[in-house]
Amino acid sequence: MKLDGTYTFDAPREVVWHTLQDPQALRNSIPGVEEFNEIGPDEYQARMKIGVASIKGTYLAKIRVFDKQPPTHYKLGIDANGTPGFVRGEGAFDLIEEQPGKTTVKWEADAQVGGLVAGVGQRMLSGVAKMTVGQLWKAMAGQIKEKQAAS
């Protein structure tokens, strides 16, 4: 399953970069996260409760940030397993500041889904994935506003 999109934040690229790399901001922004722990440099383990249609479950995920080129680019890998199946994927994120104080994150991801959750159908999975990513970006925008208000 391939996905892509953009999201524009009302913040300078440096602020967006540091927030996207902040484990606490990630924990507070990823939908369905119950636990989020750093297990090494740029490596995290998470427990998430998520679902598609009638197939809901808890996933244990390993998340890895790599290919970092601050403050413009990074990649993220995920390997998640749960009772409804598995999700493995990789995403690339590019931060573009086309005008001062506004940063657009352009992203593209490729994921493989298996198990019961794969039986839901590509169209529904794609829609749920886009909705979940939209929730993540909105929550991250809230984290960025909090950081800016605190400084």
How do you describe this structure in short?
The chain has 151 residues and is α+β, with helices and mostly antiparallel strands. It contains 3 helices and 7 strands; from the N terminus they run βααββββββα.
Structural write-up:
Strands 1-7-6-5-4-3-2 form a seven-stranded antiparallel sheet, with helices on one face. Helices cover 29% and strands 52% of the residues. It is built from three helices and seven strands; from the N terminus they run βααββββββα. By secondary structure, the protein is of the alpha+beta class. A hairpin with a 3-residue loop joins strand 4 and strand 5 (73-82).
What labels would you give this structure?
single chain, 151 residues, alpha+beta, Alpha-D-Glucose-1,6-Bisphosphate, Chain A, domain 4, seven-stranded antiparallel beta sheet
Tally the beta strands: 7
Determine the CATH topology: Alpha-D-Glucose-1,6-Bisphosphate, Chain A, domain 4
Distance between the termini: 40 Å
Major sheet: size, sense and barrel closure?
A: 7 strands, antiparallel
% residues in beta strands: over 45%
SSE string: EHHEEEEEEH
Shape: globular
CATH classification, class level: Alpha Beta
Q: How many domains make up the coordinates?
A: 1
State the helicity in percent bands.
25-40%
Which consecutive residue ranges, at least 5 long each, have pLDDT under 50? none
Helix vs. strand class: alpha+beta
- Cα gyration radius (Å): 15 Å
The tally of helices reads 3
Spatial arrangement of strands, main beta sheet: 1-7-6-5-4-3-2
Any guess at the CATH architecture? 2-Layer Sandwich
Let me know the CATH homologous superfamily.
START domain
Oligomerization category of the chains in this entry: single chain
